[in-house]
Specification:
By secondary structure, the protein is an all-beta fold. It has one domain: Beta Barrel (AttH-like fold). It is about 5% helix and about 50% strand. Strands 1, 2, 3, 4, 5, 6, 7, 8, 9, 10, 11, 12 and 13 form a 13-stranded antiparallel beta sheet that branches.
Length: about 375
């Protein structure tokens, strides 16, 4: 369900030049998560995942994304966060005869988001980039992990292998990352064996897996300096042809890497009446590899404060999370307040800290949160 809202809307106007794209911030999730999925495959049943094949592109589906986030630290203990995301949205079924095709014909529109946070300096730099999937400007391998948008890239060093280190490289206006990330764990299938149901209708779902821990090393580029760093990363992969159903207005999503090696993903889908959608869910992987699936009624996530962004959107700012089945309680706080991406699609995505207890013992960790579908004025939910 995550993160292709902008592309779904922009696909309708993709014949224009980049200058014709909406000025930020212009798009709301309820306005853009819609579109005709006729002719595209649907996520309507569990499937057999195969790696490295499923690290690659799935062009039969309307939308798809590769989503890296992570936490980095320099030798002198400076903390940074990063996001590098590649979004693909199909422009429509391709029925043109092969003989009529040209190198400039595009079947997909691509968008990239890069964000870097310098937590000690309270600085946050978000960037976006668009390209058609033509003439080599943007694209993805079909047989393994390799995705690019101009010179932004996530490229597996050994794409034919199930598990490979990956080069993450993206720069814009003197800010960027150049990292090697190495997977520490196997892919984790979210939902029902990788089928993540988002609504009542059959096919209103995504195929969704995560690689929840990577070792990272490389450098962060900031204005006037290049900083060597090490740290951790998280990858989310989803593809689907569905949209939000009536009454679903957005989501609060979290990925948490906790001390000792346990990982937690969960999301709350919000409804227009203020209730939590019953298709909200999560997954816990313990330090020993045990997997616990969490339904909407298995956890309680409560916002305990709010923050008013420069865009005049009010977001939750801190949360209390309770998962009785795991005997887990966490207080979640942003690493810094302003991690809003005020781009063509406005949303809040940034690093968070988690502290609390599990079975009476202290536990902490770091992660990322994503907040979408919040209103354009302070008095609007």
């Amino acid at each position: 369900m995550r993160r292709l809202a902008t592309l779904v809307a922009l696909a309708a106007t993709a014949c224009g030049a980049p200058e014709a794209l909406p000025e930020a911030p212009a798009l709301e999730i309820t306005e853009v998560l819609a579109g005709d999925s006729t002719g595209f495959a649907r996520a309507d049943a569990p499937r057999d995942f195969s790696f490295p094949r499923d690290h690659g592109s799935h062009p039969d589906f309307r939308t798809e994304w590769w989503y890296y986030t992570g936490h980095l630290q320099s030798d002198d203990a400076r903390d940074f966060g990063f996001q590098l995301t590649f979004f693909r949205s199909a422009l429509g079924s391709s029925n043109a005869p092969v003989a009529l095709r040209s190198a400039w014909r595009a079947d997909n529109l691509w968008m990239g988001h890069l964000a870097v946070g310098d937590y000690a300096a309270n600085r946050f730099w978000p960037f976006e980039r668009f390209a058609r999937g033509a003439a080599g400007l943007a694209g993805a391998r079909s047989d393994g992990l390799g995705v690019w948008l101009e010179d932004w890239q996530a490229t597996a060093h050994r794409p034919a292998e199930r598990s490979s280190s990956v080069q993450l490289r993206a720069h814009a206006d003197g800010v960027g990352i150049d990292l090697i990330v190495e997977p520490v764990v196997e892919p984790l299938l979210q939902g029902n064996a990788g089928l993540s149901q988002k609504g009542e209708a059959a096919g209103n779902a995504s195929y969704y897996y995560s690689v929840t821990r990577w070792r990272a090393r490389g450098s962060v580029t900031l204005p006037g300096e290049v900083v060597p760093v090490t740290g951790t990363a998280w990858l989310d992969r989803e593809w689907s042809s569905s949209a939000l159903e009536s009454g679903q207005v957005g989501w609060d999503w979290f990925s948490l890497q906790l001390a000792g090696g346990s990982d937690l993903m969960l999301y709350v889908m919000r409804r227009a009446d203020g209730t939590v959608d019953r298709h909200s869910s999560g997954t816990w992987r313990s330090t020993t590899g045990e997997i616990v699936r969490l339904s909407a009624d298995a956890f309680d996530l409560t916002a305990t404060s709010t923050w008013l962004a420069p865009s005049e959107v009010r977001y939750p700012a801190t949360w209390q999370l309770r998962i009785p089945e795991l005997d887990l309680e966490l207080a979640i706080t942003p690493r810094m307040a302003d991690q809003e991406l005020r781009l063509a699609f406005r949303y809040w995505e940034g690093g968070v800290d988690a502290r609390g207890t599990r079975a009476g013992e202290a536990i902490d960790g770091k992660g990322f949160a994503e907040l979408t579908g919040y209103g354009a004025t302070p008095d609007r939910p």
